[in-house]
Amino acid sequence: MQVLDAEMAKGLPTVSPYASGLDATKFSMEENFPEVKLDFEPFGTRVVVQLRRVISKTSSGIFLGKETKDTEAWNMQVGKVLAVGPLAFKNRRTGEEWPEKAWCKTGDYVRFQRHVGDRLSVKVDDDGEPIALLILNDADLIGRYTGDPREVRAYLL
User: Fold this and answer.
1) Which residues face 83 on adjacent strands?
2) How far is 31 from 110, CA to CA, in rounded Å?
3) What confidence score (pLDDT) does residue 5 get?
4) Coil, strand or helix: which one is 91?
5) Nearest partner of 121 among 31, 50, 43, judged by Cα
6) How far apart are CA 26 and CA 90, in angstroms?
7) Staple partner for 46: which of 8, 66, 85, 95, CB 3.0–4.6 Å?
8) How far apart are CA 112 and CA 117, in angstroms?
9) What CATH number corresponds to the domain at position 44?
10) pLDDT tens digits, residue range 44-60?
11) Do 72 and 39 touch, CB atoms closer than 8 A?
């Protein structure tokens, strides 16, 4: 394995973590996370998360292709908690809360691993793209966003 020094690396392109993914900050929270009628109650330790809606066209009016939208949808790792199962964030045997309490609650924006949970889509009553929902275990949540979840970009390969 060869190590690059500063002189050798001068001609190489720099990779920015913000160079990939679609910019969702130009759309409102309601456009990114529209109201979803959830006809589903999670069992046990499951948590239902609504993924940020994949945009159909850019803020400048360019319509995105299916492949781009599919890649964005499958790489999205930020979502809004819609429902929490009765044993989520609790001792599995006793049902008592964990000493550190619940990590998140309904309405929080969270991050999770890319290939975890069960994904499904639901249609909402507007003309936009269907909304992706993710059903996962409480322990699969990585953290809670305290900033603007629209600023998080999916990593596109």
Assistant:
1) 48
2) 18
3) 45
4) coil
5) 50
6) 38
7) 85
8) 9
9) 2.30.33.40
10) 999 999 998 887 777 77
11) no
Is residue 6 in a domain? no
pLDDT at 7 (0 to 100) = 45
Q: How far apart are CA 35 and CA 19, in angstroms?
A: 29
Q: How many domains does the chain have?
A: 1
Pick from 152, 150, 151, 130: nearest CA to 66: 130
Which domain range does residue 139 map to? 24-147
Are 52 and 149 a contacting pair, CB within 8 Å? yes
**The amino acid at 142:** I
Buried b (16+ CB within 10 A) or exposed e, 115-144: eebeeeeeeeeeeebebbbbbbbbebbeee
E strand or H helix that includes residue 142: strand 141-145
Structure tokens of 30?
A: 């309601």
pTM of the predicted model, to two decimals? 0.79
How many CA atoms, within 13 angstroms, populate the side-chain half-sphere of residue 55?
A: 22
Dihedral of the alpha carbons of 131, 28, 109, 33, in degrees to the nearest 10: -20
For 35-140, list the strands marked E by DSSP.
46-51, 78-84, 109-112, 118-122, 131-137
